[in-house]
């Protein structure tokens, strides 16, 4: 299935991405997002960024990262990644 960039489905995936990366979504929603990710390279990239960021933070910090710092890093990483598309 093909999705156009910036469609409603993409928007929903973006909003739920961090929950997906944390594995905090219910099964149905997770399956729905996964099905979208299989057909949408842009959202897949965003998920990769999200997962990568989690590993990075785990690796760099031994204690919890302040939420505002994490948000800052996340938005900068996402911008970098999107800029390359
Ligand atoms: Zn998408």
Keyword list:
mainly alpha; 76% helix; globular; binds zinc ion
Provide a descriptive summary of the structure in words.
The protein has one domain. It contains 4 helices and no strands. It has helices spanning 8-22, 27-39, 41-60, 67-83. Helix 3 crosses helix 4. It is globular, with a radius of gyration of 13 Å. The protein starts with 7 loop residues before the first helix and ends with a helix. The protein binds zinc ion (ZN). The site of zinc ion has 8 residues, from helix 1 and helix 3.
The number of helical elements comes to 4
Question: In terms of structural class, how would the helical and strand content be classed?
Answer: mainly alpha
The dominant shape is globular
- Straight-line N-to-C gap: 20 Å
Q: Which hetero compounds are present in the coordinates?
A: zinc ion
Spans of at least 5 consecutive residues whose pLDDT stays below 50 are none
Radius of gyration: 13 Å
**How many runs of DSSP E, i.e. beta strands?**
0
- Overall mean confidence score, pLDDT: 83
**Could you say how many structural domains there are in total?**
1
The main pleated sheet reads as: none
- The portion of residues forming beta strands comes to under 5%
Helical content band = over 70%
From N to C, what is the helix and strand string?
Answer: HHHH
Quick synopsis:
The protein has four helices and no strands. It is mainly α and 85 residues long.
Task: Give the topology.
Elements: H1 8-22, H2 27-39, H3 41-60, H4 67-83
Helix pairs in contact: 1-2, 1-3, 2-3, 3-4
């Amino acid at each position: 299935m093909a999705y156009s960039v910036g469609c409603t489905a993409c928007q929903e995936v973006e909003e739920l991405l961090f929950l997906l990366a944390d594995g905090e979504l219910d099964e149905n929603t997770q399956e729905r997002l996964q099905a979208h990710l299989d057909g949408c390279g842009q959202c897949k990239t965003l998920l990769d960024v999200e997962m990568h960021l989690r590993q990075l933070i785990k690796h760099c910090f031994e204690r919890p990262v302040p939420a505002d710092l994490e948000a800052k890093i996340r938005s900068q990483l996402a911008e970098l990644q999107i800029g390359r598309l």
